[in-house]
Amino acid sequence: MVQKHSQAAPQGERLQARRREILAAASVLFRSHGFHSTGMRDIAAASEMTVGNLYYYFENKQDLLAFCQEDAVRRLLGIAERTMQLRLDAASSLWLLIVGHIRCLNEGVPGSIAHLEVEELEAPARRRIVRLRDQYERVLRSIVQSGGREGVFVETDAALAVHAILGAANATVQWYRPRGRVSLPRIAHAFATQLVRGLIVPGTTFEPP
Hints:
The protein is mainly α.
């Protein structure tokens, strides 16, 4: 059920909170029926509101998709910024970012399965999201390149390495289930450890921070 917010909260804050609540309800439908098969009427029903009320928060499914994409990537950029402020070695920084990425998309971003549908966005929303994604990917590439300079990571194409990492991390939103056999922290830690060790120079040991 959609929760009510304090009337004292600023309008913009209330609006964003309500939009995230709607997205959380929509995420259940995205997982069970798929993004393309989920309509605005379905989302309105899951959010316990009329279709007319839903259109107050999102003009259409494109608007909802753009909100989901931007919300996700801005959260990921926040994780990247906090990780870089720690000034750790490249392997530890990359490990923390992968863990944060997986947990963010599966815990903190309602409707995160729609995060994968960037090609479905219409311009100019797609261009805006792609710019943000490129900014995030540049952080990851810089870490991989730094690890190469440090002699910790093998020589590799940083862009290809980052695409492989993001492909594995993003795919978790398609199969992870909160009530599944393995907890999300364990999944995130295992993925991050495996992906980082795949870049480590042979003979070099790596223990997660």
